[in-house]
Amino acid sequence: MTPQELLKQLYDDTLVGNGPAVLELTHTGLAMNLGPEALLYEALIPALEEVGARFERGDFFVPEMLIAGKAMAGALEVLRPLLAETGAESIGTVVMGTVKGDVHDIGKNLVNIMFEGAGFQVIDLGVQVAPEKFVDAVREHSPDIIGFSAFLTTTMPMFKANINALAKAGLRDQVIVMVGGAPVTQEYADVVGADGYAADASAAVVRAKELLQRRRRAALPA
C-alpha cells in the first residue's frame, strides 16, 4: 500500500466510522513514516468535514456522525501526544462543559471530537459543571472559547448564570461564549448574551472559527 492509498483508505474508513480499521491504518501510517500531521490533515479532518457536509445535506444523521466521531477519536488518542511532540499548534483552545443540573454528554462529546478534529485544543470539564468551575477553568487555561451545553429546558437558565459569573469575575470580555444543546435556539442564545450558537456539532466548528477569526481581526492594530 502506498502512502496515498493509505490516506485514501483512512479517509474512507473514517467517513463510515470503521473504528478498528481507522486505528490500524493510523498505526500503519506512522510505521510508514507518514507524520501525524499528514494523517490528521490529509485524511482524518477532511473525512470529518465531509461527515459534517453530509449531515447538513440530510444524507447523514446523528448516529453516523457519532460513529465517525468515535472512529476519529480513537486515532486522535494515538496522534495527540505525537502532535504535541512536533509542536503542532492548535488553532485555539476551547473549554467545554454540560451545565450544572444536567448530566447529558453525548452531544457535548461529539462537539468535542469535531473541535479536536478541526485542530482545537479541548478541555472538557464534564457534566454538572457549576458556574465557579467554568470561571476557574477560564482563569487556569485562558481559552479562546468556552462552551456551555444543556439538554434540558430546565437547565438552560444556567447559561445566563454562567455568563453572569464570568462577568462578575471580570473575565467575560476575555472569552467567546458559545451555547448549544437540543432545546437551545439562536433566539435563546441572544437573550442570555452568548456570542455564538450552533444547532449541531458540525455547525459549531464553523461558527467557532468565524467568531475566533473575527475576534483576532478586531485585535489587530489599525
Topology, element by element:
Blueprint: H1 3-15, H2 19-31, H3 36-57, H4 62-86, E1 93-98, H5 106-117, E2 121-124, H6 131-141, E3 145-149, H7 158-168, E4 176-180, H8 186-192, E5 196-197, H9 201-219
Parallel strand pairs: 1-2, 1-3, 3-4, 4-5
Helix pairs in contact: 1-2, 1-3, 2-4, 3-4, 4-5, 5-9, 6-7
Description:
Strands 2-1-3-4-5 form a five-stranded parallel beta sheet, with helices on both faces. α2 runs parallel beside α4 and α5 packs across α9. It is an alpha/beta fold and 222 residues long. α5 links the parallel β1 and β2. It folds into two domains: 84 residues, Methyltransferase, Methionine Synthase (B12-binding Domains), Chain A, domain 1 (Orthogonal Bundle); 127 residues, Cobalamin-binding domain (Rossmann fold, 3-Layer(aba) Sandwich). The chain starts with a helix and ends with a helix. It is 60% helix and 10% strand. It contains nine helices and five strands, in the order ααααβαβαβαβαβα.
